[in-house]
Amino acid sequence: MKFDKNKCQSNFVCTAVDPDHFQEADDGKVELIGGTVEGNIHTLEVDESEKTRAQQAADGCPMMAIELIDTESGETLAP
Question: How far is residue 65's CA from residue 57's CA, in Å, rounded to a whole number?
Fold first, then answer.
């Protein structure tokens, strides 16, 4: 999963559908829990069991700040 914090507009759809991976940060935007950070891009590998909620978060983000990417094929699964 890839999250671009610059695109985040604090709609908090992701925190509602996937609170295990997203939370409100001190700056009023969302932050991805865990993973790695490079600039404003946050990445996290999710297990197959977590994939449905991660996909719902990506599909629900009105700013398209979240991408679910298959690590093996490189294919974008959501949005």
Answer: 10
pTM: 0.90
| CB 23 within 8 Å of CB 33 | yes
What distance in Å separates the CA atoms of residue 21 and residue 4, rounded to the nearest whole number?
A: 14
Place of tokens 């959501």: 78
> What is the residue range of 28's domain?
2-78
Is the CB of residue 9 less than 8 Å from the CB of residue 62?
Answer: yes
pLDDT tens-place string over residues 15-69: 999 999 999 999 999 999 998 999 999 999 999 999 999 999 999 999 999 999 9
How many domains does the chain fold into?
1
Contacts of 51 (CB under 8 A, 6+ apart): 68, 77
What CATH number corresponds to the domain at position 45? Answer: 3.30.70.20
The pLDDT of residue 71 is above 90: no
